[in-house]
Every structure is written in C-alpha cells, then in structure tokens.
Amino acid sequence: MALPFDLSKLVEFCRRNYINRLALFGSAIRDDFQPDSDIDVLVEFEPGHVPGLAFFALQDELAAMFGRAVDLHTPKSLSRYFWEQVLKEAKLLYAQE
Fold it and tell me: How many CA atoms lie within 13 A of 17 on its CB side?
C-alpha cells in the first residue's frame, strides 16, 4: 500500500523542528501494511533541540500529515535489541543537508 504525503511539507516540518533525520520503519514499509495500520516514524533531532513535552505535538502533526496514527520514536526510545532491525529496514525520508 502506497503512503501518500506531501514531501515538501515533510521537509518543512523537519527543518522547523530541528530534525536531522526522519525515517519510516515497521509495517508502513512492508507488504503487511493495512488501511488501519499506524506508521512507525524514527526521528533524530539536532543536538540541544529535543522537544520535551512538545514531542507529542510533533507526533500529532505527523499523524495529520500522513492521515493516520503515528508512533514517533527516537533512537533512545527504542530497545537496543530492536535498534539493529530498525536500522536494517528503515526507509529514510529526510536527512538534513
């Protein structure tokens, strides 16, 4: 299932929120993605710009952009045992220039 979104809006979102990298992982990039699936998003923030409680507002903004629920993660929020698998399968959508 293709995931429609506006790349220019995603780039603007990342720049505005000090995101170095944004990638998708999980079912959103596999064949088992369903109409009711959420989207797992991995973000890496610029040093000194981790948003604190505003993190949840970022998650909501991404959900509106993608048109479905989003689970937002950072490298530190993922289990170290799960991290290697995420790195192998993640699809990079944005990287700071």
Answer: 25
Cβ proximity of 71 and 39 under 8 Å: yes
Residue at 1 is within a domain: no
Q: What is the pTM of this model?
A: 0.91
Please answer whether residues 7 and 18 qualify as being in contact, where contact means their C-beta atoms are separated by less than 8 angstroms.
no
Give the pair of three-digit tokens for residue 58: 């970022």
Closest CA to 13 of 47, 48, 43: 43
- Model confidence over 4-38: pLDDT tens digits? 789 999 999 999 999 999 999 998 898 888 888 99
How many structural domains compose the chain?
Answer: 1
Beta partners for residue 91, in sequence order: 24
CATH, residue 58: 3.30.460.10
Query: For residue 69, what are the domain limits?
Result: 7-95
